[in-house]
Amino acid sequence: MSQTEERNNDQAGPSRNPTRLYVILAGVLVVVILMMAILLVVKGLPALRGEKVPTVVTHETPPATPVPTFTPMPTRAPTHTPLPTLPPTPPPPMMSDTDTPLFDFVSAGGRPGVDWTGFFGQVLDAEGNPLADVPLIVWYRDGTPASEVVRTDASGSYEIRLAEAPLAGTWSIQVLTDDHRPASKLFTFNTDEDLQRGIQQIQVIWQRIR
Question: Chain-wide mean pLDDT for the chain?
């Protein structure tokens, strides 16, 4: 090789290398531009900046719960229920004597009492057994009731309080029938307020005579 050709080769080498470098850089630049374009198209500007793309959370609507349907039952015809028959209310008692008594008093006695004034005792049947649920009443002298109608308990005993203290008065006690008619004669007793020699609580024992 001549010196002229060597000089030509030396001049041609350096001129080829820069051209190849430019081609490579251009290719890399094209690839970067293409990737950025793809990111811009697919994920938008935030992805191009390196930001996280927000994820859209969708809430599924739960299926509606079916509401049970109410099927009305056939209406039954109303039945007539008879009301219970109540026993008739007896008329208010009226003071009167009787010629055909069912009860007579067996004994009577009295005692002083500071706590109350009234009557107590027992009602017996013809054999001397206690009679329960027998009505009795005490009257004032003018014929008005001095007490409510009181019934004997399971032991045949009764207690009729006229006052919660010593009280002077004249009282008539009587046994009644269930319909408040006289079942005994009227027996009258006196009480007073003297606790030393007087009587405030009177005991009367009754017995059925027929």
Answer: 83
Consecutive H or E run containing 151: strand 150-151
Check pLDDT > 70 for residue 62: no
Q: What is the pTM of this model?
A: 0.60
Angstrom CA distances, 134 to 15, 63, 190, stand at 148, 76, 24
Q: Tell me the fold of 103-208.
A: Immunoglobulin-like (2.60.40)
Distance CA 127, CA 130 (A): 9
Pairing of strands 169-175, 135-139: antiparallel
Collapsing DSSP to helix, strand or coil, 37 comes out as helix
CB 108 within 8 A of CB 205: yes
Residue 109 to residue 104: CA distance in whole angstroms: 15
200-201-206 Cα angle (round to 5): 145
